[in-house]
Amino acid sequence: MQGIITNFLTAVAVSDLAPRASLAGLVYLAMGTAMVTLGAVLFKKRWSRRDSGSSGFVLLALFGLLIASPQPTHAQANGETAVLPHLEQFLDKTITTQLADLGIPGAAVTIVAGGETILTKGYGLADQAQNRLMDGERTLLRTGSVGKLITWTAVMQLAEQGRLDLHADVNDYLDFTIPATFPEPITLAYLMTHTAGFADQGEALFVLSAEKMMPLRQYLVELQPARVFPPGQTQAYSNYGTALAGYIVERVSGEPFADYVETHIFAPLEMRHSTLRQPVPPELRSDLAIGYGAGELSTLPGGFLFSPPYPAGAMSASAADMSRFMIAHLQNGRYADATILQPETVYLMHRRHYTPDPRLDGMGYGFMMQRSNGHDVLFHRGSAFQFNAGLYLLPTENVGLYVAYNGAGGVDAPQQLWERFMDQYYPAPVLPVPTPAPDAASRLADYTGEYHLARADFSGPATVFRLLEAAQVSATRDGYLQVMVEGRPERYVEVEPGLFRHEWGQGDLAFHTDTEGRQWLSLDGRPAFLNFTATSAFKAPWYATLSISALLIGLTLLLFILSGFGWLVGWLRHPGVKQPALSRAKGLLSLRLSRWTAVAFSLSFLLFLLSFASLVGDVDPAFGVPRLFFGEASGVELVLLLPWLAAATAAGLLGSVILVWRETAVALWPKLHLTLLSVLALALVWWLSYWNLLGL
To answer: What is the DSSP letter of 82?
Structure first.
């Protein structure tokens, strides 16, 4: 129950350019001043957003900016003008607008191109209380699941050394056992494509204090999720699977995973402002950004979150360090004089190894894939509540972008920035807007329905949240297929059987049927469908849909409440009526017993719903998720007893109704009425059992 909400979790500046206190800074200032003077003429004085129309003001503004603000790692004119012209101006406008519109305190971004970092910069504040500026060189932000790419890089290092076989049973490397639920074993290749088939595991993914941390092995053993899909068949994003891979690296290398990463990845890439350690080491602590809430809580800071499965997303890193990591992957494993991977290994990581449909983007080894404006992109996003990050590689152009934000309102911000970056520098060709064929509407009924995410709990109480995360697929009268997730609708046009394209031409979705006859929906990444990243969704049976569940619960409670109210009114109107013959009979006792057990059932079920809603609604204001997620909620055990009480009273109601039917003194209508109530009560007990609310 601790994991009732799952989640949704996640390099080149060697010199520290400090123009205020170093010779390099003075040289940089002089060069920058000359460039601005020239730029004022060439670009009609539009070099800076602070341009007021006079070159003297421009120079003063630049001087103030250099003194007070974090600076780009490399201010190379060739990089900015030849490869990505006006890059800094574009980022200044785009990111500052994002911060203002989304209520985010700060961000750090880095851009690499041609094997070099061409811009690293911070925006806004890393710490609002201390008024500490975001510094792209030094400020550490939590990377969330972007840090998984470090884990997969470590796996591939050992694989190219012959110390790991990507297609061997992971049990060969473990000191505990993953059960053989299916004939085919889980392999590292399956872990890297998120097709191992694990159910989602939310419990202890994050905790609020170091005292509640558990060792990695203990987490993996005690909180092992069920295997619910055969390996290699279904994509279901798994933090547990990534943590398992990190532990395998630890076992095979003989080094704690954090030590291994520091020695074999961070050190050769000179990533001096990156760490997997929790808390952050003392020498880096003063550079750690503070995370903040969303909306009205954008000034509310959160504490440092600890993650027991830390290979899955506990990394803290500066933007500059991430630029080095991107360069290494874009340069066939090399950064400067260091080599972290061989070219063949990089190619193996970057090529597609899984896709739910060959017409869709898929997964490399750890890297997700998407088509962006006609270009193949390798990417990974990450979210750690108050921190949101995204890493994007454009291999054909040798370009990479990494950005991180320290506000909970920035969930979509990395993808938004990437799309605007692509529109600015690699715009899509103008294509005709797809429209439905005249007979499209007649074929859409086969695809409509409710689809549940494969990334979900299938054995615990959090299973019920599949209902709230479902995709509702419907057909419009004009032939569009509409997909709605969390209240956000998107429309698609059929382009070939089973394949649909977004009405704006960005992103496809496809349907397929598995060997058991179950229909699946898979789609390319889009901002409105972030929960579908590295996952698919299956069509739910009619009895397991949100609408049927709501109808069953609502109708049953309404009938029970109206019945109880009617019984109460009848008793109040005729409290002293005597029925000498019937009062001595068992019939009246059976009738009263049935009514009391019906009232007890309705009260216990209603109390469970209210208590359950209270647990979920007890949200930590700083992190925006229920305290239950962190194991901080109280009264959980008591709430979990209520479904059992409801089941017991439903059984009692059924027994008392059987007795009522045996009594000839009771009229037919009360018998039919109580029978209906008992059937509905049993239906709700089945509902509790189906969603694993009776599973503890």
So the answer is: I
Q: How far is CA 686 from CA 643, 675, 683, in A?
A: 11, 17, 5
Torsion angle, alpha carbons of 220, 226, 232, 234, to 10: -120
Give the homologous superfamily in CATH for domain 144-425. DD-peptidase/beta-lactamase superfamily (3.40.710.10)
Q: How confident is the model at residue 527 (pLDDT cuts 50, 70, 90)?
A: very low
HSE of 118 in the Cβ direction (CA atoms, 13 Å)? 23
Q: Is the pLDDT of residue 414 over 60?
A: yes
351 in Cβ contact with 329 (< 8 Å): no
Q: How far is CA 106 from CA 91, 552, 653, in A?
A: 13, 47, 59
Burial class (CB in 10 A: 0-12, 13-18, 19+), 397: middle
CA dist., res. 50 & res. 684, Å (int): 64
* Closest residue by Cα to residue 290 from 141, 78, 71: 141
What is the DSSP annotation of 151-199? HHHHHHHHHHTTS--TTSBGGGG-SS-----SSSPPBHHHHHTT-S-BP
The helix or strand, by DSSP H or E, that contains position 29, with its residue range, turns out to be helix 23-42
3-state SS, residue 487: coil
The mean per-residue pLDDT over the stretch 592-618 comes to: 94
Mean pLDDT of 485-492: 85
- Read off the pLDDT of residues 74-91 as tens digits, 9 standing for 90 and up: 333 333 435 799 999 999
φ/ψ of residue 160, rounded to 5:
-70, -20
Tell me if 434 sits within 8 A of 495, measured CB to CB: yes
Quote the pTM value.
Answer: 0.85
Residue range 440-540 forms a domain whose CATH class is mainly beta
pLDDT single digits (tens) 607-633: 999 999 999 999 998 898 899 889 888
Count helices and strands in the chain by DSSP H and E runs: 18, 22
> E strand or H helix at 484, and its extent?
strand 481-485
Start-to-end CA distance of the chain, whole Å, equals 9
Helices (H), 69-169: 77-78, 87-102, 148-160
pLDDT band at residue 575 using 50, 70 and 90 as cut-offs: low
Backbone angles phi, psi at 494, to 5 degrees: -70, 125
Q: Give yes or no for a cis peptide into 70 (omega within 30° of 0).
A: no
Q: Between the CA of residue 183 and those of 180, 187, 231, what are the distances in Å?
A: 7, 13, 9
Cβ pair 384, 310 in contact under 8 A: no
Q: Provide the phi-psi class of 135: left if phi over 0, else alpha when psi is between -120 and 50, else beta.
A: beta
How big is the CA angle at 58 (ends 56 and 59), to the nearest 5 degrees? 65
pLDDT of residue 431: 76
SS3 122: strand
Please give the backbone phi and psi of residue 221, each rounded to the nearest 5 degrees, phi first.
Answer: -80, -50
376: its two tokens: 């193949």
Structure-block tokens of residue 190? 């399956």
Contact between residue 328 and residue 402 where contact means Cβ atoms under 8 Å apart: no
Mean pLDDT of 208-214: 95
Q: Which residue has the tokens 């609310």?
A: 693
